[in-house]
Specification:
By secondary structure, this protein is an alpha+beta fold. About 20% of the residues lie in helices and about 35% in strands. The protein is built from 9 helices and 18 strands.
Length: about 375
């Protein structure tokens, strides 16, 4: 690798004309507007909670009005006909070196290494096209910048602080991509080869050559995962690739591909230190969460698993929160069986309904109590119940 890639700096959302979402993100999810940039055609608004930053790109003119490269700073125009999450910005320590490496791998460089500066210092960035759908990656070195966001943006003075609102969101935990058939392994190889990501096994029994497969009776889904080579959990990145294997009927992956118009980012996991208070607070503000089937909580051993983790099954069922435990000793691989060990590791998670009118992009809250995976047991249980 020519350069070290670490945490996501921001994730970009692109919205068509008159389909704003920034106000909803601020008012309902309580992300703080911290910086803004506006041209006659586009408004770019950065909203932050903890270290998680969404850069919302809103069209101020109809699609017939052409945009230019000046309209999208630190990003490119995916020309959306619907809402889409299409750019993940990674912090790197050598933009020029990484861009050269990517070009040597045959990657398409959408924006060459560019330096921008203001009174607070300078940054260097470039933008590369991913091998997955409409996704691009901004590669950013801001080690020489001391400003609140990035050069070219105006800081929003007096952005309100939000302590005590019950919403404990700290950072981006993971990003899940939906790939076309045959595309998940291609994506896995591309991110390993180009960005130095390492394989992350979803299950102790997962065979690296096969991945984690869910399925039965003509329906199926393949899941593969990676983690960045550097960074603590709060400063690293995990990617999950989902691919449909269904032969009869459709599943959530097929639905995304159809309604999104191709591959892309399906959901973003937001890490929370208190999923119960955060879920309650967001529900009170109008956020709609996916309701698990009642059989999820009544399946054999689930109540005992939740109790052994020190949680209240009635509270989790009331809120719709899922819980999954790890097999002791399986660091980096998520297990499925509960254990009576007082030091057992587990995670809790909950998913919002799609945030746009289409059944595409949604958010996840994930509360990790030592578990490094993605809720493999929950995925399997929900797949069985829903499909």
């Amino acid at each position: 690798m020519a350069a070290s890639l670490s945490r996501p700096c921001f994730i970009s959302l692109h919205l068509p004309y008159r389909q704003g979402w920034a106000q909803h993100l601020a008012n309902t999810f309580r992300f703080q507007p911290v910086a803004v940039r506006e041209t006659p055609r586009v408004r770019q608004l950065a909203l932050q909670r903890g270290s998680a930053v969404f850069l919302v790109n809103e069209r101020l003119a109809p699609a017939s009005a052409p945009t230019s490269s000046c309209d999208f700073l630190y990003d490119t125009d995916p020309r959306p006909t619907l809402g889409t999450a299409s750019n993940v910005c990674f912090e790197v320590d050598d933009v020029l070196g990484l861009c050269k490496h990517l070009q040597s791998q045959g990657c398409s460089l959408l924006v060459p290494p560019t330096e921008l500066r203001d009174d607070s210092g300078s940054v260097t960035y470039g933008v590369v096209s991913s091998v997955v759908g409409n996704i691009s990656h901004t590669l950013l070195d801001r080690s020489r910048y001391q400003g609140p966001f990035l050069p070219g943006f105006q800081h929003i003075q007096g952005a309100p602080s939000v302590p005590g609102d019950g919403i404990e969101i700290t950072h981006f935990d993971h990003i899940t991509y939906v790939c076309p058939r045959g595309g998940a392994r291609t994506a896995l190889d591309w991110y390993q080869r180009c960005f130095g990501f390492h394989r992350f096994l979803l299950n102790p029994q997962e065979r690296p050559a096969e991945g984690y497969v869910l399925g039965g009776q003509g329906l199926g889904m393949l899941l593969l995962a990676l983690q960045s080579a550097q960074g603590t959990p709060a400063h690293g990145c995990k990617l999950v690739f989902a691919e449909s294997l269904s032969q009869n009927g459709t599943n959530q992956v097929d639905t995304f591909l159809e309604q999104h118009g191709g591959a892309g980012i399906q959901h973003v996991g937001l890490c929370t230190t208190n999923i119960i208070s955060t879920t309650r607070a967001l529900q009170q503000r109008g956020v709609r969460f996916f309701t698990p089937p009642t059989m999820y909580y009544s399946q054999g051993g689930k109540v005992e698993e939740i109790q052994r983790a020190g949680q209240d099954p009635h509270v989790l069922a009331e809120l719709g929160i899922l819980l999954d435990t790890t097999v002791p000793g399986d660091k980096g691989c998520l297990g499925t069986d509960a254990t009576e060990s007082p030091s057992q590791e587990y995670l809790m998670q909950i998913f919002t309904h799609p945030i746009f009118s289409e059944e595409t992009f949604f958010l996840e809250l994930i509360d990790r109590r030592g578990a490094p995976g993605f809720g493999e047991g929950n995925i399997r249980a929900l797949w069985k119940a829903v499909q």
